[in-house]
Amino acid sequence: MNKKWGLSAAALLLTAAVILPGCAKKEAPKEALTAAASKVAAMTSYEMKTKLTVNDLTIDTGTSEADATTGQILSMLKNAELTVDGVYQAEPMQTELTMVLNLKGDMAMSFTVPMVMTAEKLYVKVPSIPFLPLPETIVGKFVEVDLKELAEQEGAEFNPSAMDTQKVQKLSNEVVSTLLGEYDEEKYFNEIKPKEAGLPEGVEAKQVVQFQVTNDNVKEALTILVNNALPKIIDILGKDEYKELLKIDAADLAKAKEELQSSEARAEFDKDLADLNTHLTINQFHLNTAINDDNFPVYQDVLMDIKVNDPEQGENVALSLTASNQYSKINEKQTFQIGIPQGEDVITLEELQQQFGATGTY
């Protein structure tokens, strides 16, 4: 794999960075999304539903033996579905998520992993996974991870600021606002009538805004990202108020910005960008954000259908996926179905390791 693949990946990062909430009133598309970045900090509790579906994934390495092995793996991933249902509240901090993974193909399987997180602890329920013999004594138990103790064991200092959702949201607000501010509204933003946006039943929106990248604008989009947006985003990451949150050395940020803006880096970027169209084909790539009457994001969906090829390596990748994220009961009192695991339902990491060691599988 060479740098052209990295450049294509950057294109995906660009679009992923604008998965945003909605706006305060029906405004011009770009203005709506920019205003939305500040609105997200007001979400102190919500229910959420996330879904990711791999519609197609094909990898051609140019070698029959490698393709046979790869094909077995891809048969499981094609049409695979990942869903995450969750509940979140900021005060006191509590989150619970239930992740369900459905794999298709000849070795179809499905398993569910509930998780709970508080300000200092993480609980993960041990699932029953086909073809993976886990001790019966731990299946169905919640493994308790003390985040502070874990950090100390790894020789690091526990950083409670990393759990500060409000500060994370504020940082996201600044980054997103800066990123969106660099893009031309007519080229990248559209407004879609809610009735034509394919919103799921029960989702009501007064405005749906679309951010779209095509073969025609992907080069310009990447140029704006690298030359204009990223240097400003690095400056944001270096602010004093985010030092405890990010634990990033100021010298490392300064070096990254200097290297990004160096003449050598610019020349290499321009060289790779020049023939990007011969390596990346965007059949479809758009992101829709639906906004309700209370000015909150209630639904987002992304459709990506791309092809990436590297003639020098003889490798070709085709990927098509859809993803969606839905919010409800925003800023309402939440009901937690799992709660905080206690008593016999909980085992420690040490007990988990002992159980694996006893069965000779650890």
UniProtKB/TrEMBL annotation:
First and last residue of the signal peptide: 1-24
Species per Swiss-Prot/TrEMBL record: Paenibacillus borealis
Residues forming coiled coils: 239-273
Protein name: Lipoprotein
Keyword vocabulary terms for this entry: Coiled coil, Signal
